[in-house]
Design a protein that fits this description.
Helix content: 25-40%
Oligomer: single chain
Number of domains: 2
CATH class of the largest domain: Alpha Beta
Radius of gyration: 22 Å
CATH architecture of the largest domain: Alpha-Beta Horseshoe
Structural class: alpha/beta
Largest sheet: 7 strands, mixed
Number of helices: 15
C-alpha cells in the first residue's frame, strides 16, 4: 500500500451555455515536485490527477469520492481558490467512506484562511502551508510513527478543541537543488501544456495579487543552465516541443533573459516557449533575444490604463511605458497578450475609460486583450485594506474569471448556475469569509456599467469566448493559430 494518496484538483474546466465543455490539462508541477521529494525519502505515492477524469458530471461528492476510492492512510488534496468550495463541500462524503484516513489540504486555495476552514470543516484533519518538498516527508513520517503533530512544520491542526499553527520552514533558496518533477507513469499526450519552473515568488507588492504574498514578496530563481538542462531532458525523453513558463517573475530582467536566450540557442533544441513578463523588466534587446530563441508568445500584466489606478495598485510603472513596450513586443512575437483588471473599488469611470481606450488601441495593433474582473482573494492587500467586508455582494450571473470552476455555465463573462448546484453556492454564501473571491463590491454602480462598455466594444463577445481569460493557462497551438488569423 502507498504511504499517501496525493490528489491534484487544479484544473481548467469551462462549461458553456450551449452545453459544450472546454478543458485543458497542464502538468501539475506542484504535486510532481512533492512526489519526487517523497520518493527520495523512501515513501510510496499513489498520485491521482482529477484533470484527467473522464466523467460527464465531475462536480458531485460521489464522483469525487469514487475517484479517491481505496486511498492510502493519508489523503493529500491540492486545490486553488476556484475549486475550494467544491472540495470542502465534498469532504463530508469522503470522510463518511474513510473515517480512519488522515485528510490534509494543501495548495494555494486555503492560504490565509486556514483557521476559518478548519472551524467550519470538521472532516478535515489539517492544512499544510509552505513548500511541500520540505513538509511532506516530515508529515508522513510523524503520522506513521504516531508522534505529536507539533513536530510537523507548516501545518494548521486541532488540539483540545483549539486550532494550532506550527510555523513553516525557511524557503528553499537554491532551486537548482530541487529534484526534477516526477514524470514516471505520466502520459504526456494527455497534457496540452508542459509547464516548467523558472522561479518561485515575486518581489513586487501589487495589491491585487494573491501569489506574491504567499511567497512573502521574495523570489528565488533556478540558474538558466539548470532550466535548459531540464528542457533538454523533457525534449529528448518525452518529445516536448513547447514549454510554458507560468512564473509571474520568470522574465526578471534584460541581462538574465539575454543569457537564457543565448544558452537556449546554443543547446540546439528546436522548441518554442511562452512566458509572462513585466513591461518594466524588458528592453528591445532582451525582447528580440527571446523571440530569436523560440519565444512565440509573451504576456504582460498591464492591469490598467489609468496612472492613478496603477499607482494605487503599486504596479511600479506608468501607462505610457506599458503602451510603448507592448506595442514594441507586437513587432517581434507571433502572439502578445495584455491582461487588464477592471472593477477596482477605487476605479472611477474616468479611470476605466482610460483602460478601455488603451485596450482598444492595443487591440488595433493585433495584441490579444484579456480583461479580468477583480478577484478579492483573502491574502491580497486590496482585500485586507480596501474592502468593507459587509459590502461584499454575490451576483449569481457574474463571477470573476479566476473563480470559474466548471460548476456554472458560462456565456461570455456572464454565467448561469444550474439548480442542482444551488446547495454548493449556498455554502459559498454562508462562508463569505472563506470565499471572498466569489463576491463583488457595488455591483450596480461599479461593475455593471463597466461590463456594459466592455461588451459594447466586444471585449466580452459571446460568439468568441476566450477559454484563456483566467490568465493561468496558455492557449493551445490551435487557439494560437485562430488568434493569428483574425
Amino acid at each position: 500500500m502507498a504511504d499517501i494518496t496525493l490528489v491534484n484538483l487544479n484544473m481548467l474546466y469551462i462549461k458553456y451555455l450551449d452545453g459544450k465543455v472546454h478543458r485543458q490539462c497542464h502538468l501539475p508541477l506542484g504535486p510532481l515536485y512533492i512526489i519526487s521529494s517523497l520518493r527520495n525519502h523512501g515513501f510510496e505515492v499513489d498520485f491521482r490527477d482529477y484533470q484527467l477524469l473522464e466523467e460527464k458530471e465531475l462536480f458531485c461528492p460521489e464522483v469525487f469520492s469514487n475517484f479517491i476510492k481505496d486511498p492510502a492512510p493519508i489523503i493529500g488534496l491540492s486545490c486553488m481558490a476556484n475549486l475550494l468550495p467544491f472540495v470542502l463541500y465534498a469532504l463530508p462524503h469522503l470522510r463518511s467512506l474513510y473515517p480512519d484516513r488522515t485528510i490534509v489540504l494543501g495548495g494555494v486555495g486555503p492560504t490565509s484562511i486556514e483557521r476559518e476552514i478548519l472551524e467550519c470543516t470538521p472532516e478535515l484533519d489539517m492544512i499544510s502551508e509552505g513548500e511541500g518538498e520540505l513538509n511532506s516527508p516530515i508529515l508522513i513520517k510523524t503520522l506513521q510513527e504516531k508522534k505529536p503533530l507539533e513536530d510537523i512544520p507548516g501545518i494548521f491542526f486541532r488540539k483540545n478543541g483549539k486550532i494550532m499553527h506550527n510555523p513553516r520552514l525557511p524557503r528553499i533558496k537554491d532551486l537548482d537543488s530541487l529534484p526534477r518533477p516526477s514524470y514516471d507513469g505520466l502520459d504526456f499526450v494527455k497534457y496540452v501544456g508542459h509547464n516548467i519552473l523558472g522561479r518561485r515568488g515575486c518581489p513586487y507588492p501589487c495589491t491585487f495579487c494573491s501569489i506574491a504574498p504567499i511567497w512573502g514578496l521574495k523570489a528565488y530563481s533556478r540558474s538558466n543552465q539548470n532550466i535548459i538542462d531540464e528542457m533538454l531532458e523533457m525534449h529528448r525523453m518525452y518529445g516536448v516541443q513547447q514549454f510554458l513558463f507560468q512564473d509571474e517573475f520568470f522574465v526578471s530582467g534584460p541581462e538574465r533573459m539575454i543569457e537564457f536566450s543565448r544558452l537556449l540557442e546554443k543547446s540546439g533544441m528546436d522548441i518554442t516557449y511562452k512566458a509572462f513578463a513585466r513591461v518594466d523588466l524588458v528592453n528591445e534587446e532582451s525582447l528580440k533575444a527571446m523571440a530569436d530563441s523560440g519565444c512565440v508568445e509573451i504576456r504582460f500584466g498591464v492591469e490598467s490604463g489609468s496612472d492613478k489606478v496603477l499607482k494605487l495598485t503599486k504596479k511600479g510603472f506608468d501607462s505610457k511605458t506599458a503602451l510603448r513596450v507592448v506595442s514594441q513586443a507586437k513587432k517581434l512575437f507571433r502572439s502578445v497578450d495584455a491582461f487588464y483588471i477592471w472593477g477596482f473599488p477605487f476605479e472611477t469611470m474616468e479611470d476605466f475609460s482610460a483602460s478601455l481606450m488603451q485596450m482598444i488601441t492595443l487591440r488595433g495593433m493585433g495584441v490579444r486583450i484579456l480583461p479580468s474582473l477583480l478577484t478579492y482573494l483573502p491574502q491580497t492587500h486590496i482585500y485586507k485594506e480596501f474592502v468593507d467586508k459587509s459590502k461584499l455582494e454575490f451576483c449569481p450571473h457574474l463571477l470573476p474569471e479566476y473563480m470559474i470552476s466548471g460548476i456554472e455555465r458560462r456565456g461570455s463573462v456572464r454565467i448561469n448556475i444550474d439548480a442542482k448546484y444551488s446547495d454548493l453556492f449556498e455554502y459559498v454564501l454562508r462562508h463569505k469569509e472563506i470565499f471572498p473571491g466569489f463576491f463583488h463590491v457595488d455591483v450596480e454602480n461599479n461593475i455593471y456599467p463597466k461590463l456594459e462598455l466592455l461588451e459594447e466594444f466586444e471585449f466580452y463577445d459571446p460568439t468568441e469566448l476566450s477559454d484563456d481569460s483566467c490568465g493561468a493557462h496558455s492557449p493551445s497551438e490551435e487557439d494560437l493559430s485562430l488568434t493569428l488569423n483574425i
